[in-house]
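Long-time lurker, first post. I've been practising inverse folding by hand and with some scripts of my own, and I keep getting stuck on stretches where the structure tokens seem ambiguous. Below is the full token string for one chain I'm working on. Before anyone asks, I'm not after the true native sequence, just a reasonable design that respects the backbone. If someone could post their per-position residues I'd love to compare against what I wrote down in my notebook.
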């Protein structure tokens, strides 16, 4: 949890000049280009990398360059105006949302990039919600103002309506579309013009034809800030205006509290608007001392650690990467100082690890340093078993930090080595993949004996399999993708009695439970889709046995009666029970909970759930009918349709299983002019034609 972001550290610590931020956006909004321009302007690189040329610093993986998208979160460091900026360029494709989740867990702020033509797109909204969950302060950058159809006001409206935030626009574009040349800074009422061939802007007065509009927008900005900020409101009431100093301070407070989002604009490709963006990062986003002390647990008690180099060391592993030179473990240092040669404790595993080297990261290049202090994001070499989400801490003052949550996989494929001689090598390669990416899982199907790889989507698995082929030189066969079904309770049972009695010559086992099973309330948003409670009175079932019954019920959720799929969406209530003076134990009651719930599920009425996604399809107007017909054939339900400059945007909810191969089908039906994006929309009942119906008692 974060405390009031308006808190400003009075410390003069060098940590106040550190910014840890991520670049967030929908795929193809320009995140990587923004990152490249930041690195170029700060002197971290001496040549501007281009995505289409495959010369970017952060998209260094061969697959990223081949596909032209960001797949893996890449960390870089640079310096600007006396500040050190640790920056993570995150993926924009929905299949790699887990990379974004792990990055947001260790960031203090973020820049959200939006396309000036498309505005807020599905994945833009998804990553915004992820940042909301982590309470990460953000500023917005509306990119690609040089494109045909670019409209800052339309993009800002979409930010207000779709993200439910208050956009505080601090710039006005100079020129439109191909004639875009710069911006008007509404805080200082000046123009910033980027001349072709120059890397920096030329400052000047506001152009005469924009004076009236700039004054109007400055007034709107002052009014919006005064409505949200008490000190600004006081000055506004006294003077009917806000000074630049008051406005800047209020914008900083509103950004850090999340009550508003500062909006800037530009064209990263043309190098327009990046310097003001960097100035905004320094002015508005928090430093490590500005955010609350990190919280963790020690011996069951909650503790806090401040961002202080003198405090005991505590850091969180958020990424693991195996390279040709060794295993890199990426760590956010929250408190204390980590030095080369230190021995640290992997708190969750109870294992000691030695820090051999500490590296300042520049994507796939690294510079060795002697130490890392609170607020740093670095890579270390030495830990052999620490996984993503692990806490590294000083051995004599261990603190366990909350790890990032990993999403449950929704798509599965069977993989096998082409040669039997490569079976062991494939197992090793899969183990390394899962270690690097917690959103992947690999297991052996007990019925078929096949090796099964599960992930977040079709592209996610394609990338994983291709990585095995390239990095390990293995020929791998891949089966047809299958979605991850779930089972749920349609109609439960009341008063199901289960007695677990076992006598095998020694101490016996006895447990008697009475269970009520019902569908979970739709308004209950528990992540695991399961609720357990007990109404037993009179001590008929001791509390430790109640906990054992709950554990047994959770065991039973792993396999449902319809097809062995995980069970979700149910509430279990223990209403009564009985014990034996000698033979009752936690083991017996756990078994009773497990077998009792399994029997209850077989007795009740169950239904199969399938994963569904929200699909946004962008096609020319003349192809709308074809696309709508195809979506209907895929059991899609259209929820929205709008037209933007001769282009139609269709939104629909479609079962994930129906979207395999959709990219090729859409291209063929629109002569290559159609595109689509998806985002998870949860689970929905699968029709009888797909599942064969529900299981009835």
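-- Answer (accepted) --
I ran through it position by position. Result:
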């Amino acid at each position: 949890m974060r405390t009031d972001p308006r808190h400003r550290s009075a410390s003069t610590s060098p940590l106040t000049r550190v910014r840890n931020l991520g670049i967030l956006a929908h795929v193809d909004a320009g995140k990587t280009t923004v990152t490249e321009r930041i690195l170029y302007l700060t002197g971290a690189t001496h040549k501007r990398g281009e995505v289409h040329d495959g010369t970017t610093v952060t998209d260094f993986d061969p697959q990223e360059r081949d596909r032209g998208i960001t797949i893996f979160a890449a960390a870089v460091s640079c310096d600007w105006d006396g500040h050190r900026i640790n920056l993570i360029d995150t993926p924009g494709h929905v299949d790699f949302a887990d990379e974004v989740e792990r990055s947001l867990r260790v960031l203090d702020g973020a820049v959200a990039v939006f396309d000036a033509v498309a505005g807020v797109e599905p994945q833009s909204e998804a990553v915004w919600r992820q940042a909301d969950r982590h309470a990460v302060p953000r500023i917005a950058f509306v990119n690609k103002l040089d494109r045909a159809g670019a409209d800052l006001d339309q993009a800002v409206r979409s930010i207000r309506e779709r993200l439910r935030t208050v956009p505080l626009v601090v710039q006005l574009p100079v020129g439109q579309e191909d004639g875009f040349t710069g911006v008007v800074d509404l805080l200082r009422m000046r123009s910033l013009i980027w001349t072709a061939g120059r890397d920096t802007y030329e400052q000047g007065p506001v152009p005469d034809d924009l004076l009236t509009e700039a004054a109007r927008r400055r007034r709107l900005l002052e009014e919006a800030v005064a409505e949200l900020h008490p000190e600004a409101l006081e000055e506004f009431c006294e003077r009917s205006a806000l000074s630049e100093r008051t406005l800047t301070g209020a914008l900083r407070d509103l950004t850090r509290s999340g009550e508003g989002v500062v909006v800037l604009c530009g064209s990263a490709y043309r190098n327009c608007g990046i310097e003001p963006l960097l100035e905004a990062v320094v002015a508005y986003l928090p430093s490590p001392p500005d955010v609350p002390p990190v919280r963790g647990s020690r011996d069951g008690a909650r503790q806090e650690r401040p961002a202080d180099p003198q405090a005991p060391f505590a850091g969180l592993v958020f990424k693991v990467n195996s390279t040709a030179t060794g295993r890199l473990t990426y760590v956010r240092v929250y408190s204390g100082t980590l030095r080369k040669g230190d021995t640290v404790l992997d708190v969750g595993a109870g294992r000691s690890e030695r820090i051999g080297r500490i590296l300042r990261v520049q994507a796939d290049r690294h510079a060795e340093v002697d130490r890392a202090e609170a607020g740093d994001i670095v890579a270390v070499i030495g830990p052999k078993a620490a996984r993503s989400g692990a806490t590294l801490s000083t051995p004599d003052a261990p603190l366990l930090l909350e790890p990032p949550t990993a999403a449950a996989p929704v798509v599965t494929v069977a993989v096998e080595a082409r040669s039997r001689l490569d079976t062991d090598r494939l197992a090793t390669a899969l183990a390394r993949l899962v270690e690097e990416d917690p959103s992947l899982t690999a297991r052996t199907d007990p019925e078929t004996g096949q090796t099964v790889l599960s992930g977040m989507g079709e592209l996610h698995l394609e990338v994983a399999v291709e990585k095995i082929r390239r990095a390990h030189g293995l020929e791998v066969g891949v089966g047809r993708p299958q979605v991850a079904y779930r089972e749920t309770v349609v109609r439960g049972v009341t008063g199901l009695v289960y007695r677990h009695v076992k006598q095998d010559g020694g101490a016996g086992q006895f447990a008697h439970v009475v269970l009520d099973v019902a569908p979970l309330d739709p308004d209950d948003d528990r992540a695991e889709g399961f609720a357990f409670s007990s109404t037993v009175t009179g001590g008929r079932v001791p509390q430790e046995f109640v906990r054992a019954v709950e554990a047994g019920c959770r065991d039973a959720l792993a396999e449902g009666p319809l097809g062995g799929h995980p069970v979700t969406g149910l509430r279990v209530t223990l209403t009564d029970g009985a014990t034996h003076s000698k033979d009752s134990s936690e083991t017996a009651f756990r078994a009773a909970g497990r077998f009792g719930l399994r029997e209850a599920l077989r007795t009740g009425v169950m239904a199969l759930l399938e994963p569904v996604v929200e699909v946004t399809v962008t096609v020319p107007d003349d192809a709308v009918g074809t696309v709508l017909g195809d979506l209907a054939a895929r059991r899609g339900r259209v929820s929205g349709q709008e037209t933007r400059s001769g282009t139609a945007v269709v939104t629909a909810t479609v079962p994930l299983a129906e979207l395999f191969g959709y990219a090729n089908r859409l291209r063929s039906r629109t002569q290559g002019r159609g595109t689509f994006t998806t985002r998870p929309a949860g689970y929905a009942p699968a029709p009888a034609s797909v599942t064969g119906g529900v299981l009835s008692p």
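A couple of notes from the structure itself: The CA atoms of residues 303 and 640 lie 48 Å apart. The chain is about 25% helix and 35% strand. Happy to go over any region you disagree with.
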